[in-house]
Structures are given as structure tokens and as C-alpha cells.
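Field log, afternoon session.

UNIT: design team B
ACTIVITY: writing a sequence onto a fixed backbone
BACKBONE:
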């Protein structure tokens, strides 16, 4: 999950939960959904599973600690994946596999298996392998990098598997439990991309904790595109080769052109769109004309066409900046510019009135939180872009400082309530057959 999760302004409170009192159709829909939730919980195996979530609360916390203390940097999730596979098998999961990219998969087959519902959490964290991930205890508070994002999601996923198997719940449709690789930053959602190239699924629920609570519903995919741009030239001595192309100077001009054009575009009315030159590098010494300069750029938008527009502005501006700089050279060859796209996450949305979104809102409301929809960059981006209904939700408890060394999480009453919410939502999607 990116650092933007739920920092983006909330789009709206679920329309179906905030309609005027005179809207009889919406009122009836809400009442029907609430009754569906009540009827589901009356089924003996489901009632047992909900009770077991409370009984197993300490085991879930112990799982969280155990998983957190296994480093899982981008492109280095294999050790945590192997451990998670072992933990699933210990809870009665059968035929647990790890695919060729590293996703851990457990297909819990339904009675008829006409549809497949995914419950997903991601294995990777943003931290390099050498990071100290030993969990420290300050009273009830657990501190360790990655303990929220997204190790808490993995622990909840395992907890759901545990209570489903302990209570022998049979569903109508299949549930595919996924511990995915590559959600964070450079991973570029590679685990989900690969999975959906090789499997057919019908709906997708991602668990990604944010900073605790479980009211947020990410039904909108925040799209992004990232580049590394490299300007190259002959380089030389700052005195003796003066007048030949300076790649820093060219890159600076290109950035200025891009900033002016992009600022003008993003200030116009329309879905929010952003741009950022995040990293710059190159050069060898203060008295050397650099032979190479590079930068890394991130652009985002809630709208696919706006993302395409800012991408086009970026490429045209950078080329124009370098070309114009080359026209000023007194001697030597022209500088060249290279673009390498390092990431792409598609935009899109699952409609606010889609049954998956409205069911999610009703279940969140039933278990005591206020549902609010938002737009973020999560694993749900990929299924949404492929027309598969998808949401990303939180998993309760209190937490803070995700993506920092000070990351922390603490169990509270809404931690178990969130797990109940996840269980009921999955069963509504998969159909509890007994």
C-alpha cells in the first residue's frame, strides 16, 4: 500500500447509508441487507466462527508478531511467503501453493464453485532486508516496521481461514486466499498482475490496514505512472571542457519546462492529478562537467485520461527542454535523453452502487463503524482495471506511522469487530451454504 492511503480526501459517505429518509427504495435495500447479515449470523457454523474470532484473538496477535519478525522487502518476500504457507497448512488449509512469482495461494472450494471470491493481503513491506523488525512491547502496543502495512492484513487473513475451518463452514462459491507479493512501491502490483493473467476470479477484497479502524472502503483506484529519465553527454573538466553539454543544466531546464506545463494543467478543473520529481542524481565532482544526470518522477490521477494527459505533457516537456538546451551548446555533441517507465498503476473504480461496495458499507455499519469511500493505490487497482469488482478495506485495531521505523499497532475492541466484518463480508460474497 502506498503512503497515500486514506490521506486523500474522502469522496463521500456511502450513498446507500446516507440517503434522505423519504427514499423508500434505498431504505428497503438497507433493511434487506441488514436482514441478510442477521440471517447469516443465525446459521450455527457462522455463529460459531464469529465466536471463535473472539476466542482466537490472542492467537491472531501472536501470528502478527511472528510474521512481522520475518523481513519481506520488495522482491524479497520469499521467506515470509514460505512461513505463511506453513501457517496456513497448520490451520487445515489443503493444497497451499506458491506460484512462480511468489504469491501464496489457498483455494477453499465451494459447494458448486461457480464463482471465485478473492481475499488478499500483501506479503511485502517498504523496508530493506537489514531493517530491525523485532517487535517491541510497550504495554499493549506493538512496535515494529511493517506491523500495520500489511502484516496485520496477513494475520487477519490467517484468522479467517482458521475460524472457517474450525467451524466447518461450507460456502457455495470458492474463496481464494492470496498472500501477494509486490504491492509496495517498486513492486508495482506485480503479484496481482501475474495472478490475474493466470486465474479467473469474480470479485476481489484486499485487506490493507492503513492506520487502524475499518470504516474506509477503497473502491476507487488511484492511477500512477513513474519514470526514470537519464540525460547523457560527454562530460569533461569544468575549465578545460567548458562549453560542452552539461547534463545537469539540461535536466534543470527540462524540469522547469515540465513544472510550468504540468502546473498549468493540474490547476484546471477536473479530477485531481499530481506530479512530483522525487529523486535526482548524477555527477562525479564539483569540478567535473557531469556525463550523466537522472531523475525519478511520479505522476498520479484519479482519472485515466488525465493520467495519460500528464504523462504526455511530461514526455514532451522533457524532450523540449533538452532539445532547447542543445541549441545553446558552443561545442561538442548534443546531449541525449532516455525514458524508462518504472511503474504503472491503472485508474478506475468499482461503482458506488455495485453490490460489493454496498454490502461492504452495510457490514461495516452493522459492526459499528461509519463507512466512507475513498480513492487510493492498492492491490485493487488491477482487478478494477480489468472490470472485476474490488474493494480494499481495513482490519481494525489502533495504529500509526505506517512506512516508518516507528510503525505501531495495538489491539482493541474494534480489532475483533473488524475481523467479524471481514468474515461476514466474505461469506456474503461466497454464500454460506450451511
Amino acid at each position: 500500500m502506498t503512503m497515500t492511503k486514506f490521506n486523500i480526501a474522502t469522496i463521500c459517505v456511502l450513498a446507500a447509508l446516507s440517503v434522505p429518509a423519504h427514499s423508500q427504495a434505498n431504505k428497503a435495500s438497507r433493511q434487506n441487507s441488514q436482514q441478510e447479515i442477521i440471517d447469516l449470523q443465525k446459521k450455527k457454523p457462522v455463529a460459531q466462527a464469529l465466536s471463535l474470532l473472539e476466542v482466537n484473538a490472542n492467537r491472531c496477535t501472536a501470528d502478527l508478531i511472528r510474521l512481522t519478525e520475518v523481513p519481506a522487502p520488495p522482491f524479497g518476500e520469499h521467506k515470509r511467503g514460505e512461513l505463511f504457507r506453513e501457517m496456513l497448512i497448520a490451520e487445515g488449509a489443503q493444497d497451499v501453493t506458491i506460484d512462480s512469482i511468489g504469491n501464496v495461494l489457498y483455494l477453499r472450494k465451494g459447494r458448486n464453485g461457480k464463482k471465485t471470491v478473492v481475499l488478499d493481503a500483501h506479503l511485502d513491506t517498504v523496508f530493506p532486508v537489514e531493517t530491525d523488525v523485532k517487535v517491541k512491547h510497550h504495554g499493549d502496543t506493538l512496535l515494529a516496521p511493517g506491523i500495520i502495512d500489511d502484516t496485520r492484513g496477513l494475520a487477519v487473513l490467517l484468522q479467517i481461514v482458521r475460524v472457517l475451518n474450525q467451524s466447518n463452514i461450507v460456502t457455495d462459491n470458492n474463496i481464494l486466499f492470496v498472500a501477494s507479493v509486490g504491492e509496495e512501491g517498486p513492486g508495482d502490483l506485480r503479484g496481482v498482475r501475474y495472478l490475474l493473467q493466470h486465474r479467473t476470479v469474480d470479485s476481489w477484497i484486499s485487506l490493507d490496514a492503513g492506520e487502524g479502524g475499518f470504516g474506509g472502503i477503497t473502491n476507487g483506484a488511484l492511477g500512477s505512472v513513474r519514470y526514470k529519465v537519464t540525460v547523457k553527454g560527454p562530460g569533461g573538466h569544468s575549465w578545460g571542457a567548458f562549453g560542452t553539454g552539461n547534463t545537469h543544466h539540461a535536466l534543470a531546464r527540462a524540469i522547469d519546462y515540465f513544472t510550468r506545463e504540468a502546473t498549468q494543467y493540474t490547476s484546471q478543473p477536473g479530477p485531481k492529478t499530481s506530479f512530483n520529481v522525487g529523486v535526482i542524481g548524477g555527477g562525479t565532482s564539483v569540478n567535473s562537467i557531469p556525463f550523466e544526470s537522472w531523475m525519478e518522477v511520479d505522476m498520479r490521477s484519479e482519472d485515466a485520461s488525465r493520467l495519460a494527459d500528464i504523462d504526455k505533457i511530461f514526455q514532451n516537456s522533457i524532450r523540449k527542454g533538452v532539445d532547447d538546451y542543445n541549441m545553446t551548446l558552443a561545442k561538442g555533441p548534443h546531449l541525449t535523453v532516455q525514458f524508462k517507465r518504472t511503474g504503472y498503476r491503472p485508474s478506475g473504480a468499482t461503482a458506488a452502487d455495485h453490490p460489493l461496495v454496498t454490502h461492504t458499507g452495510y457490514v461495516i455499519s452493522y459492526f459499528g463503524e461509519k463507512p466512507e469511500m475513498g480513492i487510493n493505490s492498492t492491490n485493487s487497482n488491477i482487478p478494477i482495471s480489468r472490470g472485476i469488482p474490488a474493494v480494499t478495506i481495513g482490519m481494525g485495531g489502533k495504529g500509526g506511522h505506517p512506512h516508518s521505523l516507528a510503525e505501531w499497532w495495538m489491539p482493541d475492541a474494534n480489532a475483533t469487530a473488524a475481523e467479524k466484518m471481514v468474515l461476514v463480508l466474505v461469506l456474503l460474497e461466497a454464500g454460506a451454504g450451511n
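LOG NOTE: The chain has two domains: 12-18+26-221+347-430, 223-345.
NEXT ACTIVITY: expression trials, pending approval
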